[in-house]
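From the pipeline queue, job 12 of 40. The input is one protein chain; the requested action is below.

Action: predict structure.
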Amino acid sequence: MLKGKTVLLGVTGGIAAYKAAALASALVKLHACVEVVMTKNATEFIAPLTFEQLTGNRTMIDTFDRNFVHQVEHISLAQRTDLVIIAPATANVCAKLAHGLADDMLTTTVLACKCPKLIAPAMNTNMYENPVTQDNLQLLRKYGWNVITPASGRLACGAVGAGKLPEPEDLVQYILREIALPHDLEGKTVLVTAGATQESLDPVRYLTNHSTGKMGCAIAEAAMLRGAKVILVCGAVSAKLPPFVTVVNTVSAQDMFEAVAQYAKDADFIFKAAAVADYTPTDYCDDKMKKRDGELSIPLKRTTDILAWLGENRRDGQVICGFSMETKDMVENSRAKLAKKKVDMICANNLKQDGAGFGVDTNIVTLITKDSLQELPLQSKQSVAHAILDKAMTL
């Protein structure tokens, strides 16, 4: 995902420096070129050789190191860097970067970088909360740095509070959001529904379906990586929720409808990927469920048709996409749904095909619009999500 990208990882003198090794390893596994620049104090916590073994590149520490080809090394590195991340960042380095001080290889190189910059403060809680440190972090934000909020917990000094370096996998997500993909959805708002709704029959039982939310979550994550503001309205999901999106949790079809109605007016793209229960009990009361001929009889009524409501209440310029899961006559049924719901695109799949449908990590989808039909081969739901976004952006 980061092939062809160069990440400059700055490591400063804090106990959390050991986590930087795991971060470097994770980035290499994503095919990034990782250049590590350490402060002299950082080498007291972790050896430069560790990073050289992980990245395959020489770790840089000394501004005046003569062991390189004839060029101004910190300028050359700054020019080929796609993203800077300082992790961990001590209070001292935060202060120097905020005020433009450049007295070592790391601060000199970073001062010459024009690419996106992330900084992950990690220090004692009192140091982090000190007004001077907070002022410095605010100054970094003013100059375009993305300051990653530290985690809370027990610190190496024994104190409990804010100041922990986030886990490497969380830091990777910040990097992916910045440079993994072109931000062709920058400035757009994307609304996605995902998962299954639940309609209570009594305090124990409910009506639902087999949706896991994987396809909807994949669309939300893909849109986020492409720069969109994403609102994810969730029913019951077993998929991992993507980071950096606004998650709205719902239970029933009515809950989901109300959430969608609230956010739809501001959305540029809407993807209704949730599998909504079609029926709900007319009354939530045990004595309404009668046994008839040995079987349970439950009075039901239809739930709100969210996709039809979106089609009827769309604003100018909105692109609305629905999903159609069929077992036969997939294209014909989906074309009818497209016209009836008054939407722009239907993503159709046949639940009887291996690799498609609920609970799997792959999908086989046909994208249907008024004027076109595009069949996608079996691929990951992440790849399908990007294909869906690509098509939606042409409508």
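Job complete. The chain has two domains: 6-179, 189-392.
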